[in-house]
Amino acid sequence: GSSLNKTIDIGEFMENLIKSPLFTEVALLGMTKRTMDKREVMDFAIGCKLRGPVPLQKGL
User: Fold this and answer.
1) Which of 14, 17, 39, 42 has a 20 to 30 Å separation from 50 between CA atoms?
2) pTM for the structure as a whole
3) How far apart are CA 26 and CA 3, in angstroms?
């Protein structure tokens, strides 16, 4: 993904993934900076695994 100014912080984004019931083993794989249209852009790669199937609850 890429992060521009005034967007969600990478740490906050990762924290949201960690808190999500959908993912497990969230890790930052790499990060680089570059300039695009005179704006600093942070490119990052995050790896995570999907959790296994969850049994359905009665009444759903």
Assistant:
1) 42
2) 0.62
3) 18
